[in-house]
């Protein structure tokens, strides 16, 4: 996912960061509406009844910005480098294990709310990856080295989750989310660069959110699997940075 310049050679760091901040502002409005208008706390599955509309808007916004800054489908939709996909295999194995546990809970059912969760989390995966591992990362790469560009995209992605306080996430919970999503953002940026495409990371991100929200609907006890997934993502992300991206693969 080489992002050294935009379609016409312009530097794109500032407009990319500005677009990410607008994206965060739209999400802040969504979280405020969820919490203070409808009284739904962050993490409660019914929040998708509100957020689905904001996710449609955010997906369209990210798509328009990506095409305007970089043209065509050059912002993260290149041919997949399948040799780099082996780094994502452990992450997808954890996802598969989570879905097995969720469907084995005995309460799994594709209700209207479950279908809405599936749609909303697919939009989340698409819009967030396109904005933060597409627009923000590629925009930063037009002016900065790979390491700094990854840090900027991860910091913006972490900042996105600060707005969850507007849906009643306590301060300590918000800080924990920001820390975890910063690490997640570092790993996902490395994966996107290594495989030369956003498609695999969009799928992973969507499934990661989806199975946890579905588990909330179905009262699933995942045990330590979520923690295992976080650790696996961090370790494999560090591995792909050290053995791949740092050495110019991707």
Question: Which helices and strands occur, and which strands form pairs?
Answer:
Blueprint: H1 13-37, H2 48-70, H3 89-103, H4 112-141, H5 146-160, H6 171-195, H7 199-217, H8 225-243
Stretches with pLDDT under 50, minimum 5 residues? 2-7
* Radius of gyration, in angstroms, nearest whole number: 17 Å
Largest sheet geometry: none
Strand content range = under 5%
Distance between the termini: 6 Å
* Topology order in helix (H) and strand (E) letters: HHHHHHHH
Structure, explained:
It is a single chain. With 250 residues, the protein is an all-alpha fold. It has one domain (13-247). Helices cover 68% and strands 0% of the residues. It contains eight helices and no strands. The protein has helices at residues 13-37, 48-70, 89-103, 112-141, 146-160, 171-195, 199-217, 225-243.
How would you describe this structure in keywords?
about 70% helix; disordered N terminus; single chain; about 250 residues; mainly alpha
Brief digest:
The chain is mostly helical and 250 residues long. It has helices at residues 13-37, 48-70, 89-103, 112-141, 146-160, 171-195, 199-217, 225-243.
